[in-house]
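quick one before i forget lol
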Amino acid sequence: MCVVGMRLPYEQAAEVMRELLGITVTGRQIERVVDWHGQRAIAWRDAEIDAAWQAPLPIGRQPAGPAVLYIEGDGAWINSRGQAHAEGKVGIVHQGSEKVGRTRRRLRSAVYVATFQGSERLEAV
């Protein structure tokens, strides 16, 4: 039910469930089941992230990583079909720049992230 409900509008998902499996449910029932399982998945993921942040490092071992790590973020308003505007949030993590020519530079080990959800979503990535 969740897989069908995630991939189709809820009313269409209810129709598919009835036609393929002979199960009669409403679109609203499918929406509640998908939402319930989605909330559980989010809570499980958040607990895993919290556990990873709180886990101690083995004694005598330093965390691997660069000496300096740059973290930058920004947002931009974008017109969208469904809403008047939506704010896109973007972030980049890199280890500084390096020279790649006489007048050019590039970022070392750059990783980009983006979301149209709240900026707290960038923290989880």
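fyi The chain has a mean pLDDT of 85.
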